[in-house]
Amino acid sequence: MSSPPGRGKRPSIKDVAARAGVSTKTVSNVLHGHPYLSDNVRERVEAAITELNYRPNPVARNLRGGRLGFIALSVPAISIPYYAELASCIVAAARARGFTVLIDETAGEPERERELLTAIGPRLADGVIHTPVAITGANMEELAEHVDTPIVLLGEAAFGTQLDHVVVDNTSAAREATDHLLGLGRRRIALLGAHQDLAEDERLNGYRAALAAADIEPDPRFVVPIGGARLSEDGAEAMRVLLALPEPPDAVFCYTDLLAYGAMRVLLAADHRIPRDVAVIGFDDLDVSAQITPALSSIAPDKQAIAHAAVDRIVARLSNRNQQPQTTTIPHRLVIRASTATDQ
């Protein structure tokens, strides 16, 4: 293995090539998303880039190929843990491809989303990774038609657009979570966080499908729509409403882990045992979910896979802007912890 560059010396593409045991051309191919590379070679080069903290010179890159070396990432709120964790993964994935990430938050406001997509992002970055909230569907496509910068959308709100899109199978994930609760013998399963427009809610569809397969008629009182960021206090307020019902739920599936934290806080304050009285499962699998008491079961999207897929689509489209838009579905898994354990 080659030795690292001298103290104070900025690593070069030659250093990366030496560390990975490949040519500088191969390193360049990895940075530019060349498709005809083995996984082994790509992984060695990306590891060398990370180890050496290599950054392509943006000025030189701009002179050579008209690229800036930046990817813009927009999220509704960086203070929401899921977006903070995802942003960290995207920064790492972009670094491995030689890009620096510029992060902005839109607060779900239409004007801020529009400005990011049509003005700030195209001026400052080679591509934009965007989580849409206010601008979706046809309105998103109309904006994108006037922008030459590659755009990759994240999340289920991006469905219905002819743009590159990275998403989790929310219907399948929600059905898996609901099936898990049904498998515990629960029959009064509430859903916290449904979209205000129930007709376009994939997780609601998965929840309903699981209940239908178990011959359970959904109780509309158990479906609680929540708009906005779906924070802990929203989950607490929804749980208070559910506990006031003549027959409260014996299980709760929450659209986010934050909603689940709030619901659990209210349940414990009311002397309900989790999971014996009420089982609780979230969605996002935040780092802290394994640390709270009781530890929260959750649907875990593969955040690293989301990050790599989004960055890969930016790099691929920079190499060939005439590609057809792709929807990339990222795997998820059910993480079972104490909040739905059978031996509690």
TrEMBL record:
Residues 11-65 form the HTH lacI-type domain. Signal peptide: none annotated. GO terms for molecular function: DNA-binding transcription factor activity; transcription cis-regulatory region binding. Keywords: DNA-binding, Transcription, Transcription regulation. PROSITE patterns: HTH_LACI_1, HTH_LACI_2. InterPro entries: HTH_LacI, LacI/GalR-like_sensor, Lambda_DNA-bd_dom_sf, Peripla_BP_I. This is LacI family transcriptional regulator. It comes from Jiangella asiatica. The lineage of its organism: Bacteria, Bacillati, Actinomycetota, Actinomycetes, Jiangellales.
